[in-house]
Design a protein that fits this description.
single chain, mainly alpha, 13 helices
Length: about 270
Amino acid sequence: MSEQAPRKTSTARARASRKPESRLAMVRRARRINRELAELYPYAHPELDFENPFQLLVATVLSAQTTDLRVNQTTPALFAAYPTPEDLAAADPEELEQILRPTGFFRAKARALLGLSAALRDTFGGEVPGRLEDLVTLPGVGRKTANVVLGNAFGVPGLTVDTHFQRLVHRFGWTTAKEPEKIEQDVMAIFPKSEWTMVSHRLIFHGRRMCHARRPACGVCPIAPLCPSYGEGETDPEKAKKLLKYEMAGGPGQRLKPPPEFPGKAAPPLEVE
């Protein structure tokens, strides 16, 4: 007796019956999604606390394999002890590791910070360079980190292709590419250059708050009608509402010093054991 084929859900049937989308239609839909996200998150911003390009560069390097919140809870002590590249380059490795311990992978991160600080001191006169080709020569700095610094410290437009960004552009059908640089190129071609930095902030905000990796809150998502992946997550509005995070759920954000327009609460400082 042959096994009965699994029944398709209504969402799966709707996807199967959809006609292929033209390039023009995809671009129009993508730009509309961006406009909708701009209305949903008019306060979207980088979620790392920083006061200058050096602090943003260091914080972004530390954000690998941890949350922005944990970085923000760690950097006050770090920058109090080592406020400049020269200070950080001369740091005792073991003392630096102890400060960085809460961020995870603290030994590797300490080596990266010592190396990039020495490079800033010796090659760039103690200043963070404002060009991508210079930034990526620093230890621990790739295109993603460079674009974060350029876009938010120097006003140079760029896309931050992190895990949230990659997940959402695939769900939205903006690209099928897997390599970060190809994803970056594909999405850059969809939007005007002036929008690149804010597109990144909006997608990352949406990924952290609503369009989660495991259970996206589809039932309360305002761009659901524009999303070809609607139905991957919880579609019941009441159940979906319970999946919201950070200020969308009435909780604190990730910054200890959020911008004035941020509607959520400031994050708490690191608890000292």
